[in-house]
């Protein structure tokens, strides 16, 4: 599966691998999830003309307490967490006409500002219009340390369009973070394709299978 989890050491870890989000003994401050994707190219009139079909991917993060009780989801209808520590850049409903390296949606997390009630975070993506990941020309996800203006270390990358395992799916779990007893965070790359048509059903599957 096309998942890479990279540290500065150059070690590539596979799906399901865990890393501690500590840097030289100190906790990291900022984590971002960036999603970049393109429109679907449609052929018409015997292939002589083409048009763009908009693609609406939605990145989200769900928050839970230490007893796996649901707290809230940060997504296109709830752009800022109740404690102000998580900010969503807003809903992109179309995608790019030309491939670039700029993220269409970004979720920024300030770990030091998170409420102590938050013990787990699960990152996921949905195809709002139900378009198969395999039909989207490119869809790249990065989870990284830093800010969109200062990317310091890419922790994990996913390529939904290029990997056959994501074909036939419209939802995917990117990863999970959880707070340890010392207050620092661990991260696990999930890369789990799901058959869930919307955010509500994605949350049901997370709570049934992916919190422990």
Can you walk through the features of this model?
Helix content is 5%, strand content 47%. It has one helix spanning 199-209, and strands at residues 3-6, 12-13, 18-20, 22-23, 26-27, 30-37, 40-44, 49-53, 57-64, 70-74, 86-88, 105-110, 120-127, 139-147, 150-159, 171-179, 185-194. The strands form 4 sheets. The chain has a 7-stranded antiparallel beta sheet with strand order 2-1-15-14-6-12-11, with no helix packed on it. A 6-stranded antiparallel beta sheet has the order 3-17-16-13-9-10, with helices on one face. The longest helix is centred in the C-terminal third of the chain and has 11 residues, at 199-209. The protein is globular.
As a whole number of angstroms, the C-alpha radius of gyration is: 17 Å
In terms of DSSP E residues, the strand content is over 45%
Poorly predicted tracts of residues: 1-13
**Major sheet:** 7 strands, antiparallel
Strand arrangement within the widest β-sheet reads 2-1-15-14-6-12-11
Overall structural class, as computed from helix and strand content, comes to mainly beta
Mean pLDDT: 87
Number of strands: 17
Helicity level = under 10%
N-to-C span: 23 Å
Shape, principal axes of CA atoms: globular
What's the total helix number? Answer: 1
Order of helices and strands: EEEEEEEEEEEEEEEEEH
């Amino acid at each position: 599966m096309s998942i890479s989890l990279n540290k500065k050491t150059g070690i590539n870890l596979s799906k399901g691998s865990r890393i501690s989000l500590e840097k030289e003994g100190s906790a990291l401050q900022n984590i971002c999830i960036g999603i970049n994707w393109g429109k679907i190219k449609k052929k018409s009139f015997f292939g002589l003309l083409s048009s763009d079909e908009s693609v609406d991917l939605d990145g989200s993060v769900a928050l839970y307490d230490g007893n796996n009780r649901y707290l809230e989801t940060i997504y296109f209808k709830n752009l800022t967490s109740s404690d102000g520590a998580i900010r969503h850049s807003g809903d992109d409903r179309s995608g790019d006409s030309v491939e670039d390296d700029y993220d269409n949606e970004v979720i920024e997390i300030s770990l030091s500002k998170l409420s102590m009630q938050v013990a787990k975070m699960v990152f996921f993506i949905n195809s709002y219009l139900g378009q198969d990941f395999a039909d989207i020309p490119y869809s790249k996800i990065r989870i990284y340390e830093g800010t969109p203006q200062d990317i310091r270390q890419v922790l994990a990358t996913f390529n939904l369009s290029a990997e056959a395992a994501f074909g036939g799916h419209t939802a995917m779990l990117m990863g999970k973070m959880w707070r340890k007893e010392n207050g620092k965070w661990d991260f696990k790359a999930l890369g789990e394709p799901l058959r869930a048509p919307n955010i509500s059903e994605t949350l049901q599957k997370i709570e049934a299978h992916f919190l422990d």
